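Human: Note token order:
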Amino acid sequence: MRFAALFFALTLVFNLSAKSKFTRFLVKMDSVMAAKYYKVNYDTDYIGRPKFRWVLRSRFNLSGHDLLARGERDNMRVEANLMTAHKATMTLAVTYYGITAGFALNPGKWAGKNKDFEINAIFYNNRYSLDLSYHSSETLKGSLEGRGRTIDIERGDVKMKVLNMSADYVFNYRRFSMPAAFTQSFIQKKSAGSWMVGLSFQAAGVTTKKLPDKLLPATDIALYRVALGGGYGYNIVAGRWLVHLSAVPTFVVYNYSRLTVGERDHKRGLSFPDMIFTERAAVTWSVNERWFLALNAVLSNSLMRKGNVYFGENKWLVRLGFGVRLQNITSKKTIEKWIE
């Protein structure tokens, strides 16, 4: 009996000690994260941080993609105009001191209506921004003109894989905040703008699957592009509203494009002024210091032509969502209490 009582007492002490160590670890981790999150390298008259640890958000996403290719050789003209099925997803995410984890729900994929694979990733801080997308699609639909005929392209006839990347550096990062408009991890207090320098990269491959059976030669497209340039962005603050507009045109400094029709290749290298454009727009309404509604759009498009060969690509993504901020760090409730 005494041994059992002693064992119970030692177990209780061990559990309390372990819990105490875990609590201290969480307190230390929270302090480190808070110190990094609230590190001030910006003008506090123009930019601030929300005074909350957590953000819960839900977002509806809609995206689309289209591609135009045209070539002519030996009096044979071929033009392909393709568009993917629109993709709609729902995203649920949780953010802790600016670090976000979440998952997306795709009803169309579950129902078997859309087998496309798409990844969209963003990284925004006040100094840098990055938009990255990869899209593998078999839902391309449109038309193909060649040899004086026009043939409808049905879904499944053509497969496309496209990688798009756009990175920007913001010069006036101390007063102009991109994440205030797109991730709501900062607060834009006053209207401000900034010049930006941008880097764009695009890689794409398009292959036909069933078109040879329709009495037209197989058509393949390959694209690789790198572009440099600059643009401008502006945040307009009007009460609880924040409106963002920006455009970054870039000039292609490296280009490889190939259009293959049957056994004929149409190749092209660098020519001026081939361009890639990145445009962004956003509207955020802060209901109060906790709740907010946000709508934003990112577009990437390119215009390239040399002689009888032309390539054009457009990719767009629209997001609409709401969020709530939790656990005000200025409250008297300490981390030890909310861990319990």
In short: The first strand starts at residue 47 and ends at 48. Confidence is low (pLDDT under 50) at residues 6-16, 331-340. Helices lie at 2-37, 107-110, 178-182, 335-339. The radius of gyration is 26 Å.
